[in-house]
Amino acid sequence: MAKARLKWVSRRPRRRRKRTRRIPKGVIHVQAGFNNTIVTVTDVQGQVVSSSSAGNCGFRGKRKVSPFAAETTAVTAMRTVVMQRAEVLIKGAGIGRDAALRAIFKSGIRVTFVRDITPLPHNGCRPPNKRRV
Fold first, then answer.
1. Which superfamily, per CATH, for 22-116?
2. Where exactly are the structural domains of the chain?
3. What are phi and psi of 28, to 5 degrees?
4. Which of 32, 35, 39, 62 is deepest in the core (most CB within 10 A)?
5. Cα angle for residues 98, 51, 94 (degrees, 5° grid)
6. How far apart, in whole angstroms, are the C-alpha atoms of residue 68 and residue 72?
7. Is the CB of residue 77 less than 8 Å from the CB of residue 40?
8. pLDDT tens string 72-119
């Protein structure tokens, strides 16, 4: 009688390689906060094609907020997408917003326009009462 051979199973799950998507025109959303930078690439309808964040690229702690992390995030998000033209929407006041925009320009994609969509309060919340001692 032959012995039953066990299959060797790896404990680490295999990473599937993201396949490239071809879209003629897309929208690149850059959200630059004080703790992280998130770059999302969508098509014109708004369906997400690719996304990346500084934490996803391997940056932790203070380095997640750096301009270099934002640049790496933008390059990683656009790696799986092939497109000719793009609109860029930037949200937030973090220091990674300029670096991410620079990386988008360097990638060779023709940028049609750049819009800042940072939410600004018209009047804001009610301030706390004056302190009485």
1. Ribosomal protein S11/S14 (3.30.420.80)
2. 22-116
3. -110, 120
4. 39
5. 30
6. 6
7. yes
8. 999 999 998 999 999 999 999 999 999 999 999 999 999 999 999 999
